[in-house]
Amino acid sequence: MTAALLDIRDVHIGIIRRHGSDEIVRGVSISVAPGEKLGIVGESGSGKTLTMLSVLRLLASPPLGVVKGEILLDGEDLARVDAKRLRAVRGGEIAMVYQDPMSSLNPLMHVGKQIEETLKAHGSSPLVASDRTREVLGQVGLADPERVRTSFPHQLSGGMIQRVMIAMALATSPRVLIADEPTTALDVTIQRQILELVTSLQAETGMAVLWVTHDLGVVASLVDNVVVMYAGRVVEKATTTQLFARPTHPYTKALLQSLPGTGSSHRSALHQIGGTPPDPTRLGPGCPFRVRCPYAEEKCAQAEPELIDRGEGSFAACWKDPSQW
Ligand SMILES: Nc1ncnc2c1ncn2[C@@H]1O[C@H](COP(=O)(O)OP(=O)(O)OP(=O)(O)O)[C@@H](O)[C@H]1O
Ligand code: SF4
Ligand SMILES: [Mg+2]
Asked: Where is pLDDT greater, at 29 or 283?
């Protein structure tokens, strides 16, 4: 097994109170190796964005904070690095494309200029920054990169903005790219095209990619491994092939059944199960999926399962072996 490049270990994130904290992310471990593409999938509120923001120490603090856990970049504990090193890591070694791209662009500055500023902040000379900006805007498949370079954000479509954000993230040749699916639900086709593009660029650099999405279908053929999150926890980890062929958590199975073209008649399987995801700060004992789970039994109400090895590289936080479903 290749050593992890980014290793998120047992991270707990909570709303910090005077006495203790209300945990939202509850012991998440996710790691990626160089050159690996990892999909992180889960419904709204499952803790995907908070986990990713914690990597770069960008949680809205207060009230949020990492209560426990470690985040290692090539063995270096990111919680302990000084401000100078943190600036070098942010946008340099680990680049993030944020869920709300408009909020990370300056509306009053040409987008090309903003990419140049990022490069200069990471040590490029003005000339190199300008050349590299032209190069990356070309690489991300924009039809007229020169026009885009001298455009203001509001002059571009959602899909173009997303490409600009990817260009900005890739400009510094990061070792890790974290892309959080935009809230303005981008066309699935555009998401797939962008992920394909990242894949082709990644082949040259060995960058590790974490791709956060609601839609399992988007990552289906494009990532090596998938992590499924539910109620602030990882409930399944598997290779993409295994996950699709043999899901080992009932929630993953439901997500798969809700995809079009997977033998299920329509996309509302999760609604057929009924209910919505629970508030992670108000969980009782037991498995947080039990109220929606068709296989729940007595034990499921008593204790929350940890990830259990289900073979073939699959791990699931479920008491029941898939053969018992
Ligand atoms: N600043 C905050 N203060 C309190 N709670 C917060 C804060 N930010 C997020 N949360 C809560 O934490 C939970 C997880 O949020 P997070 O943004 O990580 O979810 P997500 O999986 O990224 O969802 P989405 O798919 O909608 O982006 C949500 O229930 C959210 O309401
Ligand atoms: S532990 Fe029980 S309730 Fe939870 S997913 Fe498994 S079978 Fe369903
Ligand atoms: Mg999010």
From this structure: 29
